Each structure stands twice: as structure tokens, then as C-alpha cells.
Automatic annotation (TrEMBL):
This is NELFB factor. It comes from Jacana jacana. GO terms for cellular component: NELF complex. InterPro entries: COBRA1. The gene is Nelfb. It holds the Pfam family COBRA1. GO terms for biological process: negative regulation of transcription elongation by RNA polymerase II. Residues 557-583 are annotated as: Disordered.
Amino acid sequence: GPGWAAMYAGLQELGVANGEDLKETLTNCTEPLKAIEQFQTENGVLLPSLQSALPFLDLHGTPRLEFHQSVFDELREKLLERVSTIALEGKVEERYKKLEELLEKSFSLVKMPSIQPVVMCVMKHLPKVPEKKLKLVMADKDLYKACAVEVKRQIWQDNQALFGDEVSPLLKQYILEKENTLFSNDISVLHNFFSPSPKTRRQGEVVQKLTQMIGKNVKLYDMVLQFLRTLFLRTRNVHYCTLRAELLMSLHDLEISEICTVDPCHKFTWCLDACIREKFVDNKRARELQGFLDGVKKGQEQVLGDLSMILCDPFAINTLALSTIRNLQDLVGQDTLPRESPDLLLLLRMLSLGQGAWDMIDSQVFKEPKMEAELITRFLPMLMSFVVDDHTFNVDQKLPSEEKGPVPYPSTIPEAFTKFLQENRIACEIGLYYILHITKLRNKNAFLRLLPALGETFSDLAFSDIFLHLLTGNLTLLGEEFALEEFCTSLFDSFFLTACSRKENVHRHVLRLLLHLHHKVAPAKLESLQKALVPTKQSGEAVKELYNQLTEKLELRKPSPAQVTETPSMELPLPTVPTPASR
């Protein structure tokens, strides 16, 4: 066929006879058998020792093709080995010159399946494949596909659009994996979104593939970072910030100094990575991180855009927020004010930088966001007063009660607290983490006291997936409370259900929680929740699927009609059976 002809066309350029030549010979000859023999002698394997062996193989019925094929395979293996050796020995210029000559000779046969591996191997070992050859490879889908990643890198670095096409599905896959984890049906306080260590996360398929595609190529690394920045700006999706940090640390693990030494965020990210591993910023690392931030020189402020993206990674925010809560508790014990704690101020500074990432990259104005004094002088002391309230209440519980009766738990919250959560991003983030903290301590009183403040928060942070994922996990510790009307009304009617109809993700998280805890909820409440959570026409597949799962579970719980009718008969007095002892 024509494909076959094209495949072997390259042979003629090299002076090797092909099928066309044989056809021509046979058309123009008087004795075909003699001509075939002549053609075989001229184009067969030219080894004297084989001349006598071939008729012997013929006797055994081994086709010549099979014999030639096995000799060919053997030679090809030897050639591949040889190419790999040439690539490693002798002076650099000489070895590459040899490979380039080999490429010149063999490239015309690149379409022959049997020769292709050799051509590909030669190109793979050339640090700079001639431009003309790269263009030919690029123009041919099959050749491009068959190329080694070493050759593709050379093509990609001058073709951003093509590289983008390769990277794009991986980035989509990455975001999807993150979202699947946040909406996973396994709800647990022990295994949540933030459980895997940084090292484990970097073993993920997407990070590994991107690392492999980039190799040691700074240009490709820069392109990926540019894609991540652009996507973060377009979508505000913070998981791109996680990938930015994971990619750098994956190259760090492989000790690829060509890239790590030119990324100005490398040392900062490395230090922060250690904090994320411990889920805490200790004193020594705090000073190190502060050194990096203070060391940003005039004219280099652009690095703040990159650092802010590293700090906007949810794993970084999680670590900074947990450390802030721990710090506040320590300050209560030491009777110290927030403004007197350098460690706490640094945590807030990094939280501000992380939370300001989008605005900074969007506006291209690279300076640290101003910290609001109120946050430090009013909001954090307010959180500390909540910690004190809990201590006081617990002590009061233990004291012998006098006539006045037990001291009630404070039920109101300062209006300022609610206002801070609505208007100040950092306050809101810390406030939400404080609520997660008390939930994890199974502190139902504090939880119910602060829950009303979550109805309206800064850019709806209380209804964000990460917060709801963590909250649903922590709420499993308060399982017993779900039997109580007051608790359910506060949690469902006054919080979750207020957002379900306008926010699909909230609908999903409530259904996840009920799938996990439905058996703890009072039957009447469960029934009204089931009605309130019916998917609407606009609901997506995920909501419908979860709702069906919940309905199935609840169906299984209902006693079957047969059992219901039999129940009364069980209440008749049982006939007394004499026990063996009374005989």
C-alpha cells in the first residue's frame, strides 16, 4: 500500500534496494528465478560463513524473512547499546558529532517501525537536536508521540502552546483529585484533607509527571509556574498554590540544583515545608522565615508575589492558623497580650501575605499588605477571653454550688466578634480555626455560642469547602449531641440550611454529614431534614447521588410493615416456663 511505500522510501536515499527495485528487476528480466537468486545474493546478509548455512535453514523450513528478522533484531539491540555508549564516552564535542552523523544517516528511515527505535535513541542522547529534525517530528503526530521526553523538552521549550496542551489535562486532574478528597464520603477526624505529609503528597501522579516533563529545564519550569499563576488569577482556586509549592519541593527532593538555585522562593518554601510537616511553626523556624521576609531587597519586591502564592497554599494556611491558635492559648497562660508576642505577629504577617496573594498578583503591586491594628488589639484579645470563659466555667463546675445554683455558660457573643468575621479576612480565618479547635475538644457549649457568628462571614468563608470538610470531620466527635433538638436546630436550621439552596457545595457537605451520622439524629428531625434537603431541578449529579444514598440508608432503617403488626403480640405476658432449678 502507499503507507508501506512511504515507510521504505528512505531506503533508496541510502542506496539500499527495496521492493520497488525487485519489482523492476523481475519485470525486465528473462529468467525470474535467476534474477531472484541474484537479488538475494546482492541484498542478503554479506557474511561468507552464512552462504553455506542459508540452504541448510531452507531445508528446515525456516523462512528467509524470519532469519533476516532475527539477525536484524540482534543487530538493532547492539546498535542501541552502541548509541548509549557513544553518548557517554570521549570528548563532548566528538561524541555529539558522531551522534549527529548517525542521525543524518538514519533519520530518513524514521518511519520504518524496525529502525525507528534507533533514530529515537540517537535523538534522545543529543542535548541539541537540529532544529530541522525537531520541526519534522513536531509536524508528525505519530513521531511526536514516539519521542523520548528528552526530545519533547527541546520541542516544548520553544512551543509554549504545545507544552500547554500537554500540561493542561494534568492540572485539571490535579484540581479534580483535590476536590474529590474534600467531598470524600469518608468523614473522619483522624484522616482529613490535611493528613498526608508533604512528602507523601509529592508522590502524587500529577506532581511526578510534571517533574518528569520539566527535567532540569528552567524554561519549562518557568512556563509551568506561569500557567499556575494565570489559572490562579482566572479561577481563584487555591489548589494551584499547593501545586506551585509541591512542584518546587519535588525538584528539591531530586536535588535538581539547576532549578532550585534560581527559584528565589526555594529556601523559604523548604523551611515552610518542614513546618507543614510538623503542623506547627516553632520558634527557630519562625526566625528563619522572618529572615527571608525581611531580606527582600529593594528592586526585588516581585519575589513577594511568589512567596504570597506559596503562603496561600491551604496546607500553609492550615499550619499558620493552627500555630496561631496554639500561640493564643499559651499567651492566656502567660498573661501576655498578643502585641507582645513576636512569634504571633510573624504568623499574622504570613497569613496576611498568603491571604493577599490573589490581590497582589492581580494588581502587580508587590508590597506586604498592611496589618490592621484592631486585629491585634481587639480581635485576638477577644478570642483569648473566650478561652478564659471556658476555664472559668470549668472551674465553676467543680466548685461546691451554693444557693445561687450552677453558673450558666455565657450564651451571648460580643457584636464586635461577628463584625470582625464579616469584615476582616484574617480575623475570619482565625475565628473559623478557633471554632474548629473547640469542636475538636468536644466543647459543645462554646460551639453553640459561636455558631451564630458563622451565618455571614468574609466572602462566605464559613461555607468554603475546606472549612466545611474540617468541620464535618470534627462534628463526628459530637455525635451524641445530634439526638438533641436544640443542637440540631442551631447546626442545621440556623447554619447549614440557610446556604443550601444558594450553594451547591453546602448541600453536598450536609448530605455527607448525614450519611455518616443519620443514626444519631432524632427520627422526627431526620424526617424534616430529609424533606429540606430534596435536590432541586438545578442540583448537580453529586447532590442527587448523595441524596439517593441517604434515602436508601434511611429506608433500611425503617422497620418493615410485617414487624410493625407483630409488635403488640410481644407485649402479652409470656407463659411462665419452670426453670430447671425450681423443679
